[in-house]
Design a protein that fits this description.
The protein is built from 16 helices and 18 strands. The chain has 474 residues and is of the alpha/beta class. It has three domains: 97 residues, Ubiquitin-like (UB roll) (Roll); 73 residues, Alpha-Beta Plaits; 183 residues, Rossmann fold, CATH 3.40.50.1780. The C terminus is likely disordered. Bound molecules: iron/sulfur cluster (SF4) (2 copies) and FE2/S2 (inorganic) cluster.
């Protein structure tokens, strides 16, 4: 492999030809700040529009500073990432961005989780030298069941556009207008609910500011918990127990199942259940449906649709409905675990507990924004009463726990309530990419042969997933 040798901040670095200064610096342990740059190695997607200029560095002898994210290293190059000139230019860029940005950090939903805020803190910016009393650009606000758009806070990095178009292949977002009026928006400035948006939330996950954020349902839940006429149940998805700990200082990925259950009881939930219970039901349905379709196909039924695809993801189902209405018989007919749980809770369990459906509130904690949209779909309501009333994210749950003054780390482990707190390993692997289809194929195999599957038989159904360290945002 052809390499080039250079120095960055007097450190000698040797990198493959074609490497950018930003990547080479990272390799040398030097963190050059960036904003519009996004790297998703697991998805082989590198987004580098080179537009924000936050990453500018000095190359002695060169008239202008260069953006490190798009400038390739050359042999003998000398790079200064924190010369006075580079720091001044970088600070000016951030000040200019802030000069056309709302200054409501204290109440912004992205506060504490915003790249622009982090840049401003790290650069020690204490005042913004903008034209006095100059108005900032404002845009129409847009809300949907899952996400909110506040383009006043958009820095035009266009990461959302890349993720929506290149990775999700939905194409709901693209850059519109010019100059100060330029934003990323659905075609003709439609509302997201009228656009092809599937509410997958991936644009929210990559937005570095508060321009795209999740709908927050925590206060609906607090009100329900405070209402003595309501019995409030909660179901938690498998991924939540592995992500929640990070919010309370545990190493990412630490399982905190017992403490999570204890925290939910301390908050006042009447029953704490596991969505894995419903995931098992989904898998029995999907596995049986797969077997049924294969059997019909093998016996010559030409009308049967293969392959079967999972119907557990509401964004995926929405994508089919919007783009492939002629293929609606491909996904399984099973409800998602969230909705199976809700319908069983409000029928079987409500009857067992002697509670009227309208006096039962079902809350779900999900690692996915589309679940907020899914539980509002009309087909998941009975006389206007939804099977699942509110869906919240892991982050919203962490807020609830903090608001409830619960000292998470000191809690003693507790178990889920029975019977809807029991599950098998099939429900648990839902939390990993490809886990649903692995569980479905294992179930179909076991139903057909009557034998247990070996551990490694269906490993190829699993994907690589996201880089959770950087992109777990819900
Ligand atoms: S939620 Fe998903 S589909 Fe909708 S705009 Fe964002 S990335 Fe695109
Ligand atoms: S909405 Fe967010 S991700 Fe999209 S361009 Fe604006 S700042 Fe970037
Ligand atoms: S991060 Fe390099 S130009 Fe934006």
């Amino acid at each position: 492999m052809e390499t080039v040798k250079l120095t960055i901040d007097n450190k000698h670095v040797e990198v493959p030809k074609g490497t950018t200064i930003l990547q080479a610096a990272k390799q040398a342990g030097i963190n050059i700040p960036s904003l519009c740059y996004m790297n998703l190695p697991h998805l082989a997607q590198e987004h580098k529009p080179g537009s924000c200029r936050v990453c500018v560095v000095e190359i002695p002898g060169k008239k202008t500073l260069v953006p490190a994210c798009v400038t390739k290293c050359t042999d003998g190059m000398e790079v200064l990432s924190h010369s006075l000139r580079a720091i001044n230019a970088r600070r000016t860029v951030v000040e200019l961005l802030l000069s056309d940005h709302p200054k409501d950090c204290l109440i912004c939903p992205s506060s504490g989780n915003c790249e622009l805020q982090k840049l401003s803190i790290n650069m020690g910016i204490r005042e913004i030298n903008s034209v006095e009393n100059a108005a900032i650009s404002t845009y129409r606000k847009d809300s949907s069941p899952s996400l909110l758009r506040n383009m006043d806070k958009c820095v035009m990095c266009r990461s959302c556009e890349t993720i929506c178009n290149e990775i999700q292949t939905v194409g709901a977002l693209s850059a519109v207008n010019r100059g100060f009026m330029s934003v990323v928006a659905p075609a003709f400035e439609q509302d997201l609910t009228d656009s092809p948006c599937t509410f997958c939330g991936q644009c929210v996950a990559v937005c570095p500011t508060g321009a795209l954020t999740a709908v927050d349902n925590t206060f609906h839940v607090i009100r329900a918990l405070a209402d003595p006429t309501k019995t409030v149940l909660i179901q938690t998805a498998p991924a939540v127990r592995a992500a929640l700990g990070e919010e309370f200082g545990y190493t990412p990925g630490t399982l905190v199942t017992g403490k999570m259950v204890a925290a939910l009881r301390a908050l006042g939930f009447d029953k704490v259940f596991d969505t894995d219970f419903a995931a098992d039901l989904t898998i029995m349905e999907e596995g049986t449906e797969l077997l049924n379709r294969i059997s019909r196909h093998l016996s010559g039924d030409k009308s049967v649709r293969l392959p079967i695809l999972t119907s557990c993801c509401p964004a995926w189902v929405n994508f089919f409905e919007t783009n492939y209405s002629d293929m609606l018989d491909v996904p399984s007919t099973a409800r998602s675990p969230q909705q199976m749980f809700g319908s069983i809770a409000k029928t079987y369990l409500a009857e067992k507990m002697g509670i009227k459906r309208e006096n039962m509130v079902v809350v779900s904690v999900m690692p996915c924004l589309a679940k907020k949209y899914e539980c509002q779909r009309e087909e998941f309501k009975v006389d206007g009463n939804p099977d699942v009333d509110y869906s919240i994210t892991t982050r919203e749950l962490a807020h609830l726990i903090r608001m409830g003054n619960v000292d998470f780390k000191s809690l003693k482990d507790e178990d889920f309530d029975r019977p809807m707190g029991e599950s098998t390993g099939a429900g648990v692997i839902f939390g990993a990419t490809g886990g649903v289809i692995e569980a479905a194929t294992r179930t179909a195999y076991e139903l057909f042969t009557g034998k247990k599957t070996g551990k490694s038989r269906f490993l190829r159904t699993k994907g690589n997933g996201w880089d959770q360290n950087r992109y777990y945002r819900f």
